[in-house]
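**User:**
My hope is that you can spare some time for a protein that puzzles me. This is the protein in question:
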Amino acid sequence: MYNGLEISKELFELSAQAEQELQSTFKKFDEICLYNSAKVLKAFGDVKLTCTDFCENTGYGYYDVGRDKLERVYSQIFHTEDALVRPQIMSGTHALSLTFFGLLKHGDTLISISGEPYDSLKSIIGLTGESRNSLMAHGVKYEQIDLVDNDFDIKTIITRLKQSPVKMVEIQRSRGYSARLSLSVEKIERVCKAIREVDTNVIIMVDNCYGDFVEKREPTEVGADIVVGSLMKNLGAGQAKTGGYIVGTAEYVHDVAERFSAPCVAKDVGANLNQLMSFFKGIYHAPSVVNSSLKTMALASNLLEKLGYQVSPRFDDQRCDIVQTIELHSADELIEFCRGIQKGVALENYVTLMPSPMPGYPHEEIMASGSFISGSTIELSCDGPICPPYTAYMQGGLTYEYGKLGLLIALTNLKK
């Protein structure tokens, strides 16, 4: 069977060795999975979920009991007052845009305290592109405080907050297309406590994409006012066909919901479009799927380091998201590795990938994804900009077994 998939026997044997070295790491992932599964199961029971809650709602979407229960499940899991979880939110970028424009007005100041945001967020802010509808075009002021040694520069943050009013501080939990490490909930907790000592009014917002269910706690449990994520990533678990979520205080979720629909309408409208079962199944399976993805990425880190590549995080490092980076030696190696990942996915594994321009990104991109849900990065995928140091950003894996096989096919392709 493995020969039929064109997997190198040498690499298969090397993976068995790696799995022995990963036993303690895998055990930690299993503990987190069980803990988060318990949170989900408790929330399902508390809202008294029943099969009639999956019924389709059309038109305006008034009086949707199932939709309301779904949002109560999210609120309970994240320990927040309210949640907005809708199929009309098309992506993580859309969820972030709704949140920024729902909470920031002309003259307000937004500060990123996790350094430079990733490329697609820059166009929302107005740092790149020529949109007449960016935050900066609407009069929102933007500032940035870089990380120091992969941690928040708390001294500089506090000094800035004391100088003049700031409406929102934004934290990007995942690294994006950068060399920095992803941020742990523990680090987010420390900076939230420091911020609250000098400013009780500033909104603390966390972009949680790729980080959901990777740890036992979420940012809203340690001081964040509002947290944003995509259902094409962790919490959709390859089940949700679209969608995003915003969780936080009732006041802020309401303001975002008014941007989502209309003033004074907020959460009262929005048909579920027959997506409720997939949303419930997504959050139900999410702890296990995230666990599989983490194991796949740890295996990738171990094997690629053995093969002489620089990886981050290392296989036994703490993981704060599901992303694994690999510094490849050239554009050709980056392209061939991504082509190998494409050979190891379920859909369109016959496609030969080519680098190409991508909206919102300054460089040509190579992207491997054969997902059941188009663009779902909780499914095994890999992408990277065609520029030095030719870093591949790999994530996903609905099951560890499929993730492992896809990785070994990619490594075989790279070896050839």
